[in-house]
Amino acid sequence: MELTQDQLIKLYTLMVRTRKCDELIVNALKSGKAIGFFHSGQGSEAVPIGACTFNLRDDDYLYPHHRGHGIGYMLARGLSPKPFVASHMGRVAQDVEGPTARERGIHGGSGTIGASFVLSAGMGITAKKNGKNQITACFFGDGSANRGTLHEAMNLASVWKLPIVWVCENNLYAQYMPLKDSMAREDIADLASGYNMPGVIVDGQDVLAVHEAVKAAVDRARAGEGPSLVECKTYRYRGHSEGGPDISHYEPRPAKELEEWKKRDPIKLFRENLLQQGVLTDADVERIDKEIEAEAETLEKYADECPIPKPEDPSVLDRLLYAE
User: Fold this and answer.
1) Are 75 and 21 in contact (CB under 8 A)?
2) Is 61 helix (H, G, I), strand (E, B) or coil?
3) Residues 161, 224 contacting (CB under 8 angstroms)
4) What is the pTM of this model?
5) How are beta strands 173-174 and 177-178 bridged, if at all?
6) Helix or strand or coil: residue 288?
7) Whole-angstrom distance, CA of residue 269 vs CA of residue 13
C-alpha cells in the first residue's frame, strides 16, 4: 500500500508524540512526580508506529511490548495518552474521550516476561474462531525470545495456522545481557524456519521498512496462511529501567555503540526523508514540535489534577493504565 502524504505525516507525528510522552515520564520520575518504575522505549519508536498505525483494523488484537510501557502502541491505535500519563503519576484518569484499549484489542499485559506468547496464541485462536479475518499482533523483546513459551506458542500457531504476526523488537540487550552472549544464533528471525513460517529481518530504525514488513505478514495472516515472524533490529537509548544501571553484564554499555545507534535515530531519519521528499517543510517540523510540546505540558497539568485512587473505588483497576 502506497502511503499518502497525510499518512506519512501522521507516522512522523506519532513517533514524535511517542518520544515526548516517554520523555515526560522519565523527567517526572527525576522530579519525583511519577511513581513506580519505567522502561523507556526511546530509540525504538519506529517499531510500534510503523507496525500498527495503518496495518491493524480496529477489531484486531494487540499485545504490546513493555518498552515505553506500550505508549507507542496506544497512540498508534488511536488511544488517548491521558491514562498513560495519569497512571504513572499515581492518579486515576478522568473524562477520557475516544476508544478504550479493549475496543482496540489491547487487553492489558503480564508481569511475567514470555507470557505474551501463550496469551497471544489464545487471542489468535479467538480471531480464527470469530471468522472475521481478524489478526493478532504480538510484540516482544529479544530477552523474552529465550523463554520456552515462545516455542510452545509458535509451534501451536503454525500447526493450527493461527492469524498471528509475531514482531520481535530486538534492541540487542535483555536487561543487562547482550544478545550475542545469550543466543546461539545472531538473528531471532531464524527461529521461524523451525515452525515452518516466514521469518524476516527489517531495519527497526526505518518506520517505512517496519510498516512494509508487518503489512506483508498481516496480509498473509488475513489470507488464512498462518503466522509470520518479523524481527526489527533496533536499540534502546536509555538503560533497561530508569534509576537502574545501564550496563552490559557488569560494565557500562559501550559509549561508541550508543553513539553509533543515535546517529540512526528513527525520528531524525524519517524527518530527513520527509524533508528531502518535500512531504514536510522546516515550518511543518517546527509546528509539529510546538504542538506536541504543548500537548505534553497539558498532559502533565491534567495528571496533576486527576484524583489519587482510593481502595474503595471498585473500578480503579479498570481506569488506570488502559482507561476503561
Assistant:
1) yes
2) strand
3) yes
4) 0.95
5) antiparallel
6) helix
7) 13
Nearest C-alpha neighbor of 42 from the set 69, 9, 10, 74? 69
The span from the CA of 32 to the CA of 313, in Å, is 25
Mean of pLDDT over the chain: 94
**Mind spelling out the 3-state secondary structure of 86-136?**
HHHCCCCCCCCCCCCCHHHCECCCCCCCCHHHHHHHHHHHHHHHHCCCCCE
287 Cβ contact partners less than 8 Å away, ≥ 6 residues apart = none
Confidence class of residue 323 from pLDDT cuts 50, 70 and 90?
A: very low
CA-based nearest residue to 135, from 207, 15, 216: 216
CATH code for the domain defined by 5-305: 3.40.50.970
What's the CA gap between 55 and 181, in Å, rounded? 34
Length in residues, the chain = 324
Tell me the domain boundaries of the chain. 5-305
pLDDT in tens, 248-285: 999 999 999 999 999 999 999 999 999 999 999 999 99
